[in-house]
Amino acid sequence: MKFFRSSLLPLLVAALTASLTAQPKTAPVVKAIEPARVAYVSSSQFLDETTGIKELVRVAKALELEFSATQSELSLLNEKLRTLAGEINHLRADPVANAKALEEKQTTGLRLQQEMQTKQQQAQAAFQQRQQETQGPVTAQIGKELRAFAKERDISMLFDASKLGDALLDAKLELDVSPDFIAYYNAKHP
Q1: How far is CA 179 from CA 131, 142, 153, in A?
Q2: Alpha carbon distance 137, 154 (integer Å)
């Protein structure tokens, strides 16, 4: 009986090994990747006054005009502050300077500086809100048209080179479809 067990064990191992090796091995499934057509645009060209997207340029100019008074006011405040700083430096340079006059100028300068910072923050917030209101719809339309443009030309990937910065190491000029897209967009949205 011992002989039977000892001779049965190698046969059992051989049978199991043979059945395991006889099973077909499944190869990993490799998905085929189709060749892709890649191109890029440079959205910084969209705002060029002569060759850019006319609708976007018009909105940007209107926005600039709308905030020109605020910009002038901030420039005037900045000039007043610069003049006041010159007066303070002049009073400090005079050895017989009037301490009271110097203190008044410094107080006025601090008040002017705080007023300017407050107005700059308010102007920035107002500008950003108005920019979103006016340029937001145009930007959304540009995004839709970019997708349609890419689809019509069977472009698989479309990059914005302006936003890639240092990430874009090199690209052929032939892949830049910015002028084509701008012409496409301007023809649809005069």
Answers
A1: 25, 14, 14
A2: 26
CA angle 175, 178, 182 (to 5 degrees): 150
CA 76, 82, 85, 90 dihedral sign is negative
Local structure of 158: helix, strand or coil = strand
DSSP letter, residue 171 = -
| Predicted confidence (pLDDT) at residue 5 exceeds the cutoff of 50 | no
Task: Quote the tokens at residue 37.
Answer: 């057509």
- Reading the block at residue 123, the tokens are 């102007």
Phi-psi category of residue 165: left, alpha or beta, with phi > 0 → left and psi -120 to 50 → alpha: left
Q: Which two tokens stand for residue 134?
A: 């006016």
Q: Are 142 and 185 in contact (CB under 8 A)?
A: yes
**Residue 169, Ramachandran bin (φ over 0: left; ψ between -120 and 50: alpha; else beta):** alpha
Under 8 Å between Cβ of 74 and 116: yes
Any residues with CB less than 8 A from the CB of 37 and at least 6 apart, and which?
Answer: 153, 154, 155, 156, 157
- What domains, with CATH codes, occur in the chain? 31-188 (3.30.910.20)
| Cβ pair 182, 51 in contact under 8 A | yes
pLDDT at 25 (0 to 100): 62
How many CA within 13 A on the CB side of residue 168? Answer: 17
Confidence of residue 96 (pLDDT cuts 50, 70, 90): low
